[in-house]
Amino acid sequence: MFLNDVSEKIILNYEGQFPRYTSYPTAPHFSTEINPTSYSQWLRALPAQDTLSLYIHIPFCQQLCWYCGCYTKITKKEASIEAYVQGLMKEIALVALELSPKNHYVTHIHFGGGSPTLLSPQLFFNLMQSIREAFRIAPNAEIAIEVDPRTVNEEKISVYASASVNRISIGAQDFNPDVQRAINRVQTLELVESCINLFRQYGIKYINLDLMYGLPRQTTVSIKNNIEAVSLLNPSRIAFFSYAHVHWKKKHMQLIQKEDLPNDVSRIEMFSLASNLLKQQGYLPIGLDHFAKPEDPMVLALNTKTLKRNFQGYSVENAPHLIGLGTSSISQLNSQYVQNTCDIRQYKTNILNHILPIVRGIEISPEDQLRKAIIDDIMCYLEVDLKKQCTAFNYPSDYFDKELRSLDNLVKDGLVSINDYIIQIHPKARQITRVVSSYFDRFFKNHTQQHSKII
What we know:
three-stranded antiparallel sheet, 455 residues, twelve-stranded mixed sheet, alpha/beta
């Protein structure tokens, strides 16, 4: 427990570029030595009783958002989207064939992108039908879809409801028109509200809202207004992401004027303000950047220590294996990761030749499995019991003494406490989770790779 308060601005002492740890090791350390044959062998080895989670990637948007860090392609050609989905359905069949005849239950499906809501109602129906033909969907499965309110209508929502979609994630980011113009994503609060209301009318009541801070032209005033809008929309969960200006990686981010970006002090103030306002509205903080109502399953997962962190961020799904489908998607099986090609042409060629579109991956060692468990605890719970984790993986309790000594400055600054091998991060210093995690990352070497900033 922390007896003293702490100024969030002390985090600036540790400002730098650190991985977001949606995996460990992170994707840049995957190897091209892992290939479709490797993935096939791993799929076949999955125990028959194990459940699965599916991630379906739709890499298309109708317009480029300048803040976006995802793998997307801008198109308004329905033929291109339809051709991709036809390939996606073939990949689904290929993966299911590798798993046959085990017939695993699927407990979670997430449609991400891009903009999955670009799919026509019939195309989404056909895609969902192919999933049901290939896998056994658990009766209580969570089926979620990321929603661009500019590309959804009642006909689509009706199809989602008939397909048993029960959770949506609305990409709002910011409600200020000036900020929206600066990121090339203009959508009114009224549009978002009407979209959410329509989903609720069709019985889809679990609503996630994605907001961001650190965007160009944002101020603490605009952040305050955004959080006030939350009370109107009444979502179940909120993801309050930090904008990562990785312009060396995503060239379109260079369209954002650097002088429009808030400085680090302002970003800290924005996060602190939003956190306090959301708490006043009854939302509970979760991990690095999520908030949820007390009755939401994510809060239950936090309290029961069953929360997960994967490539979609924080998740409550309990399936031990995540199957990624579509371009750029990443699968996680036991101690193995694989990633599909990001190239749509290569993807289509592989699928036409009945070859899984894998281009890289990794199988992690027992030590890295331990390191992953430690990093997951830090990112999910802002604490980790090193002795407990080391015992679980048959390592001596003092195995990470060197890493503990590296945290001395964070301890002196009151951001971290260490007691009997239990590391705790101050609840007002959530951004530090990425810094603390990096000390247990044996691949992370003195900022030799570029990552997003922690603030």
